[in-house]
User: Fold these one by one.
Assistant:
Number 1:
Amino acid sequence: MNLKKIKEIPIVKKLGFNRIVLTGVLVLMYVVLSLIVDKFAGMPRIMSALNYAYFLGFLSLGVTFVIATGGIDFSIGPVMFCCALISGYCLTSHGVPMLLSLIISVIVGFIFGMFNGYLVAYWRVPPFIVSMASMNIAKGVASVFTKTQSVSWPQAAKGGWFRSLVKVGKFPVGIVIFFAIAIVCSIVLNHTKAGRYILSLGSNREAVRLSGVDIKKWEMLAYVICGILVGIAAIYFVGAYTTVQPGYGDQYNNEAIAGCVMGGTSMAGGLASIGGTVIGVLIIALLQEGILALGFTKDYQLIITGLIVIVAVYADVMARRRNN
């Protein structure tokens, strides 16, 4: 049976060939690492990988909407740090209540999403330029707001109840919330008017415009959704790692985009898979934990992530050529 016939099998078509392959890769990676690394299958390693997957997952979900329009956002990592720093500074230095601080994190992400979306959709500034500028603005705003000081969020024993969003005891609450929000994102992208227009913008912007659709509104919405999810990602970052320093966050851009593209979202726009993004993120998180468990530095993960992006984009380009 050739590959084309396999893809035509009803169950394969329903689940998605790419998602099935990615799930197989994820399981194989876990089995291999469990065999070659002592105690890798234990709960501590699993929880560590999941902590990394949560915030990276929300970043990837957000940028999936942007890439679906044919755009890109390289500011998501620094904006996540900006959200965490501003909301954390409000909490620790100005006595803002915890719940309101968490809401501030999402509001800051929303503002950056509005800013990016407006410049891209209404001013027609290229997404690459907007995201580069926004990345520097986010770093600068966070540094000015916190007076270049790092911010440490409280531990669970000292009023940090928000950490229960990440885990309660040994139960990974975060994975439940992440999957729930991923399902909502999938419904929005695949079963609503907004999602259809967002995908259509990536497929054929001119045709959508000529049909009388307000393309600016829907393109901006994609960036706003991304900003909100980045604000949520900041909450999960500090929930897992506590301390945030100004001037960082760039390193998570490529990893989030890699998880998204690996999952089947086309960099050319018009094709996106929330389910694929979720699996791609879990692979990146497991890869990160595996590299550290093997005694290598994070630099190796950066190399591998870069190669993954190249391979995924090349595969997408070749698939489009075949379809054309």
Note: The first helix runs from residue 3 to 8.
Number 2:
Amino acid sequence: MTSYSLSTMWAQQERFEDMHDFVRAARSLGYDAIEVSHHTREDGFARLLDGSGATFSGIHAPAPNREALGKRNNSLNLASLDDAERNAAIAETKASVDHAAAVDAGFVIVHLGGIGANMLESEQKQRKLFDGGTRSGPEVDALRAETLERRAELAPPYFERARETLAELVAYASERGIVIGLENRLHHHEFPLAGEAKELLAGYTAQQAGYWHDVGHAEVQARLGYVDKRAWLDTLGERTLACHLHDVDGIGDHRAPGNGDVEWGYIAEGLPDSALRVFEINQRQSDGDVANAIPFLRERGVIT
């Protein structure tokens, strides 16, 4: 297993039009592997496969990013009640599994979909209030309560589609030696919550599927008052395959660790030593911040 992996999320810059340059930059900054982000377009992905010398820790489905069913494939819903959309989403994820097998990546990270295509209106309103500085009070409480109630009301049929989708993906991936990583999500209408993830994974071995913890996503849902940030690793620690590491400012995530205010202690305590550490940092973070992320998290016990 590699030590530190850097997502190609950071590669969304003009200077990395040639993805060989990204691979060289990642190495120079202290990363010995890369994870292919679902934002990586087909030409960039092809270049990664064309003699870049990269070691692939995983592929974040659906990658590469391309058009499918008249829209970008990363907007397709694996839990959709529309069979055409769900089948297209499954096909795109299976393509990512094939790519992972071809490059010996080991893992495919999956967003399992959600209740429809968009955030619940109440969550959208609460996020706008949060960004405007209103983070508590009667209006916020009412919107939060509406979000929680609406999700509970609407979730069951979508959750069953998500369960069926996961079963199909795990069967396909297992035949190819690939493990499915089920990621916690940024928006509350999406699957899974911690208890849902435990239920979904119960029928699979660690060699088939596991939990993929995203620090920023957990932090944002906690800041909005939806899910305790500790619930994920408390519930799923033993099933945790890996972690997407990034910092959060307000409810803006994908900052380089050290460029936000995440309290890293509970991550250091709850993340298994065996879990892969993947730095999922956005393209607006500087080279220095990307390099400093490693010693920053080493000092906090998140990496060793």
Note: DSSP finds ten helices and twelve strands in the chain.
Number 3:
Amino acid sequence: MTRPVVVGVAGRDDAPLRFAIDEARRRGAPLRVLHCAAMPFEQMEMYVSELSCREMLAAGQRVLDEAAGLVREEAPDVPTEYELSTRTPVDLLVEEGATAQLLVIGIEDIPWCDRVLGGAVAGHLARLAPCPMVAVPQVRDDRSRHEGVVVALDCTRASDQLLRLAFDLARHRRCPAHALTVIPEGSTPDDIDDTRVVLGEVLAGWREAYPEVRVQQHVVVGAPDEVCRTATQGAELVLVGRSRHHGFRRPLAVSVLRHVACPVGVVPLDERRA
């Protein structure tokens, strides 16, 4: 059975759902549309009445009904399931990610309880999601998107999952792929030249596999999170990898998600050295 594309909807913006519909159609995959009530029932009963709980669930069902209307209008051929859950968004989506091929959420979809209980859903999923995820901001002006798909690469680690997704998306969108490697402040011109050579070697096989995709290389000196956030200003999509073992350091994927201007994809990487 083909694994689904899973999208969490909150009802304030349909950009994440439209992105998920496009990906499900491109992949020939079913779509699962999820909406979470504000808090799990066992916690809600401590604070609000049973009537308020029913009203909250009814409001959640209206969100799903609106999503179903959009799916019927834009993708009646995509097999779609809907689920209204009383679990927290992070718990539900992490579990769904175990059997999904892609998770899609809105960056600003942060219920008040998640602010109290630990922060933004997108940030948590960037650290925990077992499959690739894409976080879609609410405010987007696609008229200024001219730089294609940007993929941030660490040339010292294997990046097959990340590069495959980047080239697939660039081919589907008929736009260029920009391979971006960031090196530390204080790097010399020789460091830049050496990194450019390594980056070219990493990309060589992918250029052959995707001859229709125009590829540009960029080696930039600076802070990786700042450089990647700047890239979101003109890109259609920015992709970053996430190491499974980042210790106590904040992963780049989490830092990049602050104040972005286009969808950002986060892909779990294996630890095999390139």
Note: Residues 40-44, 109-119 have pLDDT under 50 and may be disordered.
Number 4:
Amino acid sequence: MTDRPLLTIDAIGRKCPIPIIMLAERIREVPVGRVVAVTADDPAAKTDIPAWCRMKLQEFVREVPLPRGSAFHIRRTY
């Protein structure tokens, strides 16, 4: 399994809960086992995205700091 994102969702400049809504709408675009990245600069994303992963039984892989915000990597589990 590769940890390189197959899809990147750009949520820079979007406030909570928009990054989560964008992730929820698009995670099914990647096959099970593959990674989606959400780029976000809303400070709430640091807690909201991992919490969403726990609630939805998706795997939070890591947070990668970017010049503006972070990329949050999520592996689709089902």
Note: The chain has a mean pLDDT of 97.
